[in-house]
């Protein structure tokens, strides 16, 4: 029997990689995307339904047409800095669209839900190694909006039997090793693609956002996970739900943090090129250090990250960066 999975944001960076992983695991990913930040060229692994999550009638139509066994919800606004400047946009878009989606799923009796949440729900906790039990104290509207969606999923679990697997990601990096799809945001704000742009001259330089943080070299520390490993966890999360297991939360990190300067140094060695740098101010909303263990995902889901060492992530991103990619 063909199993369709509705993938919101399937034309985006993580969503498109999830579609490939789902296709490889025997599912048919149905991408639902507004193309506000996604690329139609990234929809390669299943059907495409263009639509806005704010449009409940359109969602009902898509649920009725494909009868998905589950939803994977990636579509969201996800820029920490922007969420500090325009919190209303984040609360309105992320929370109301998720509510619409959850209600449409429940109405269509599609009660398995995989949600892409974030370590930004933890806020700034002085460099402690975070895990699923850490308190959620977001310091920006992006993290706040994602925490609210987590709460919503729990409430619909209690009222309607919606079962969910929530993944709290740390920093996602790298690209499909076969370079069929990759990372292209417009505007781009993420460290590694911006750095690769500075390396190949598409941008004049990379600005380092703050070097007076309480970390060994003064720059922020992040826990980077390869996008292919991340989406493998999502397929395992879907299987978890399909096996009838209860709702749960998993952190997806590598347990190792790298500072901005360490990422720059590794990029120099991987690409064998210089990275022009400007020392800049702190970016509002940035936590000094975000690192997490993934013990629970490894133990409970059987997750095995394969490409999440810094060198492989940068090498895969660099290969995509040099390919004739969409949106470049
Ligand atoms: N960063 C930076 N310069 C940039 C973009 C990012 O120094 O042009 C830093 C940022 O302050 C953070 C880290 O790189 O400490 C990762 O940022 P990114 O935006 O990639 O992901 P986030 O941590 O916001 O999810």
Automatic annotation (TrEMBL):
UniProt catalytic activity: UDP-alpha-D-glucose = UDP-alpha-D-galactose
Keyword Isomerase attributed: yes
Enzyme Commission no: 5.1.3.2
Annotated CDD domains: UDP_G4E_1_SDR_e (cd05247)
Pfam families per record: Epimerase (PF01370)
InterPro entries hit by this protein: Epimerase_deHydtase, NAD(P)-bd_dom_sf, UDP_G4E
Necessary cofactors: NAD(+)
Domain NAD-dependent epimerase/dehydratase: 5-253
Pathway this chain belongs to: Carbohydrate metabolism; galactose metabolism
Keywords in alphabetical order: Carbohydrate metabolism, Isomerase, NAD
Domain of life: Bacteria
Any Gene Ontology biological process: galactose catabolic process via UDP-galactose, Leloir pathway
Keyword set includes rRNA processing: no
Gene Ontology MF term list: UDP-glucose 4-epimerase activity
Quaternary structure and partners: Homodimer.
UniProt-listed NCBIfam families: galE (TIGR01179)
Family of the protein in this entry: Belongs to the NAD(P)-dependent epimerase/dehydratase family.
Name of this protein: UDP-glucose 4-epimerase
Annotated source species: Paenirhodobacter populi
